[in-house]
Amino acid sequence: MTDADHWEGDVNEAAVEDWKADTTTFERVRQIIDVTTEPQSASEIADRARVSDPTARKHLAALAETGRVKTITTDAGTRYMRAPQMLAMRRVADIHREHTKDEIRQAIQDLKQERRGFQEEYDVVDVDELTLELEPGDDGWQDLTRWQQIEQNLEIAQAALTIYDFDPDDSRSAAARASDGNTAARERGALGDDTAGTA
Q1: Closest CA to 154 of 113, 183, 93
Q2: Staple partner for 160: which of 93, 95, 131, 192, CB 3.0–4.6 Å?
Q3: pLDDT digit string (tens) for 75-132?
Q4: DSSP letters of the chain?
Q5: What are the structural domain ranges in the chain?
Q6: Which strands, in side-by-side order, build the sheet including 40-41?
């Protein structure tokens, strides 16, 4: 082992110790599962989270109950990974937190208008119909990809808008936006790059 390798190991171990000191076992398991996109055993997650196997299993079971963890039964035992819907749920929460109701409504209108443009250009009703119309190598496949993105963004934006039914005061979102330097995001569109304009 070189001096550089030894030093890197010391730094990594110090970082791990700081992480353990600043978090609970539950927080570490949650943080690990949030970046786990491929099924892993409780033992593997326990090792990464620096907790015991029983502790990892207990917290993973609790997180599965809340929908944050997806469990997969295999011949080798139960495997765990981040639930796919978690990213969408986070994005919904972020949009609600960072944008006012009017901004979200405007973004929804813009997305619907862009979708109408594709419907009129290709004379189809939905993405599935366009898929059947396109030939291999057709330039329209890029528009189809954008259309699929529009549909996903519409679902997320509409979900963010419904949160205001439970939290009707949008002044918090406006204040947060004004104080956290979101000028660049506003210039890209109400919901950011992936909903502003065509790809």
Answers
A1: 113
A2: 95
A3: 889 999 988 777 777 788 888 888 998 999 999 999 999 999 999 999 999 989 999 9
A4: --HHHHHHHHHHHHHHHHHHHHS-HHHHHHHHHHT--S-EEHHHHHHHHTS-HHHHHHHHHHHHHTTSEEEEEETTEEEEEE-THHHHHHHHHHHHHHS-HHHHHHHHHHHHHHHHHHHHHHT-SSHHHHHHHPPTT-THHHHHHHHHHHHHHHHHHHHHHHGGGT---THHHHHHHHHTT-HHHHHH-TT-GGGSS--
A5: 3-83, 87-195
A6: 40-41, 77-82, 69-74
Phi-psi region of 51 (alpha: psi -120 to 50; beta: other; left: phi over 0): beta
pLDDT of res. 175: 42
φ, ψ at 85 (rounded to 5°): -75, -10
The CATH number of domain 3-83 is 1.10.10.10: yes
